[in-house]
Design brief:
The protein is mainly α. Helix content is about 60%, strand content about 0%.
């Protein structure tokens, strides 16, 4: 799925201060949204690797434990690692498995394409939030 943006380019220029800025009450920060994308990539990877549905225990919109430049870099590294692990799981999934069930979570194909759509949606939110923070 091509969305016209590279995820790492979207994150480029976002400082840790920008990443933890709340734009509206009860809204998620860029950081929380990035954590959420990473969480869902990890969850789908687990489904692909373990060949069964694994229930997520949370939403993944976690606040950072500490708000520092180092912690922000670690969250971005987790985001990239989650991508790399998902890509590896997809590459190693036998094509014959694509339309089989991942438990009660739909087919593996559904999980893969759903994760891509999920990424595109939330990366769009990050773009909007980044532009809003920059234009404050």
């Amino acid at each position: 799925m091509l969305i016209g943006y590279n995820a790492l380019e979207i994150l480029d220029g976002i400082t840790y201060q920008m990443a933890c800025t709340k734009l509206y009450l009860n809204g998620n920060t860029i950081w929380q949204t990035l954590n959420h994308i990473s969480y869902w990539r990890e969850l789908v990877t687990q489904r692909l690797v373990n060949m069964q549905g694994i229930e997520g225990q949370k939403t993944g919109f976690d606040e950072p434990e500490e708000i520092t430049a180092v912690a922000w870099e670690q969250s971005k590294q987790r985001f990239q690692q989650a991508y790399d692990q998902l890509k590896n799981a997809i590459l190693h999934l036998e094509e014959s498995m694509l339309h089989t069930s991942a438990g009660d979570k739909g087919s593996y194909y559904f999980n893969i394409t759903g994760c891509m759509q999920h990424d595109a949606f939330h990366l769009g939110q990050i773009i909007l939030a980044k532009n809003s923070v920059l234009n404050r």
